[in-house]
Design a protein that fits this description.
Layout: H1 2-16, H2 20-32, H3 34-55, H4 58-65, H5 67-89, H6 104-116, H7 119-128, H8 139-167, H9 175-197
Length: 198
């Protein structure tokens, strides 16, 4: 049980730390409103579930062990993060109260793609999950417990970020929202450069 609590603490710190998925949730809330941001968060969570599942397969181990395969995933992630940064740089924050129709399916798919474009997520699950799984007990129930817990924590943390961004919406009216978008876009660009340098 103490290992499970340690996993929860490590997962919470990982999810709370600023990164691409946190930026995506915050900017979705700022630019598209509460409903679309929650749909984007669902995409991010499904992406985490997919990456965790991939890490449990031999394909995940192959990607992590093969420098060529890992580089392909990494370069794909660089391109995707850079594209998100450019898109966000050009986005005008929707702060006036009227919410324009948003392609919610796109936000959901962007969330999934963002998780798969980040090879660090795959490495996290490949390196962390085995540390908390008892080899003498059945693998699948333990795997499901850890991954489900991670996903539920992600929903709670990102939900908190989204609600905080929505409450700060009035404060961010005008140029404040514009600068948040610009700073977030630059952060995506910086994350792309860090990923590129490996």
């Amino acid at each position: 049980m103490h290992l499970y609590l340690m996993f929860l603490a490590m997962a919470a710190l990982t999810i709370l730390s600023p990164g691409p998925s946190v930026l995506k949730s915050l900017t979705n809330a700022l630019n598209h409103g509460l409903g679309p941001a929650l749909i984007g968060m669902a995409g991010l969570t499904c992406g985490v579930l997919g990456v965790a599942t991939l890490s449990a397969t031999s394909l995940g181990v192959l990607i992590a062990a093969s420098p060529t395969a890992f580089d392909w995933v990494r370069y794909g992630g660089v391109i995707y993060l850079a594209w998100l940064g450019v898109k966000l740089w050009r986005t005008v924050p929707n702060l006036a109260g009227e919410v324009a129709p948003t392609p919610r399916r796109h936000l959901f798919l962007e969330g999934i793609m963002l998780q798969f474009a980040n090879p660090n997520a795959l490495i996290f699950f490949l390196s962390v999950l085995p540390q908390f799984i008892d080899r003498e007990s059945s693998y699948l129930p333990q795997f499901l417990l850890l991954v489900t817990s991670f996903c539920l924590l992600m929903i709670l943390v990102h939900g908190g970020y989204i609600l905080s961004a929505r409450k700060a919406r009035r404060w961010l009216q005008g140029r404040g929202g514009h600068w948040i978008n610009r700073i977030s876009a630059l952060s995506f660009g910086l994350l792309a450069l860090i990923l590129l340098r490996g």
